Amino acid sequence: MIPINQWIKIKAPATVANMVCGFDILGFAVNNPYDEMEMRLVNRSDNQLGSVLGNVDKPAITIINIDDYNLPTAPEKNVAGAALIALMEECTTVDFSTLGFEVKINKLIKPGSGVGSSAASSAGAVVGANYLLGNPFSKDDLVRFAMNGEKVASGVKHADNIAPCIHGGVTLVRSIFPLEVIALPSPTLFVTIVHPQIEVRTADARSILKQNVQLKDAIKQWGNIAGLVAGLMKGDYDLIGRSLEDVIIEPIRSILIPGFDDLKKACKAAGALGGGISGSGPSIFFLSKEKQTALAVEQEMKKLYEGLGLAHHTYVTTINQEGVTIEK
Q1: How many domains does the chain have?
Q2: With bands split at pLDDT 50, 70 and 90, how would you rate the model's confidence at 203?
Q3: What is d(CA 88, CA 73) in angstroms, rounded to the nearest whole number?
Q4: CB–CB of 176/158 below 8 Å?
Q5: The whole model's pTM is what?
Q6: Is 118 helix (H, G, I), strand (E, B) or coil?
Q7: Are 43 and 177 contained in the same domain?
Q8: Taking a C-beta distance cutoff of 8 angstroms, is the pair 73, 50 a contact?
Q9: What pLDDT digit, counting tens, does each position of 58-104 carry?
């Protein structure tokens, strides 16, 4: 276990969930943007903790925001806090009647951006806590704990952002209950992301989805998911590109994102393999084989949103192979 009061620094990457056709099961981590966090174990008798869960014989968590988003600091209402509560409840190696966690969070991934902001905070918190405690938990355990943060954010325990954030690379969530995460080969591809400066709440983006799917659409979607996984396994970039098609979720969610259809056409014409909505949006991502193509895609993104008069941020990055990292 790391000594009491010794701060560690945590870097938690953004993630792209769904990978177009893989709703709630596929995702990958990226190298930019990312959240910065600091964390330490504290002795509750020596510290005035700002937020205490329960009374003196319950776990103690203090959350300190060092950004301007004014997110909740009550542990049960904060995604990082909810994830830590789940970890503490299963931890048998430490007496949390005397110890607690203090967490500073600098969110460089804007909440509601669609690139795993809540997942980064949740995953960063449990990976940091596990390290401070001497790593008693597996990565899949940490995914389970962090999913509690996603439930706070969206009302649903989903792992398509959490899994790649913790494992790194590309991941397939074969099952939630019981949890089974499969690491897939990560292609050497460039990722271009645009974040139009509007907010699409995950809960809202889920609420508009149809609850019934036509069989012909399901068959096409299954083929695309299988093709995408096969493309990743074989390193077949053309197959990856052909499989980046969603006939179930994207047609509905895209109405929430200004200029989506025009942007998709422009980015593919610029040479991108394919892409679509990142998570629940509003961010949009495209994959390219060459950096030059990824930069050309970025220019198309800027041109479209400048034409619409809509503020936006863009990133040209690569797939993050490590997931959450600790500065030791």
Answers
A1: 2
A2: confident
A3: 17
A4: yes
A5: 0.92
A6: helix
A7: yes
A8: yes
A9: 448 999 999 999 999 999 999 999 999 999 999 998 988 889 999 99
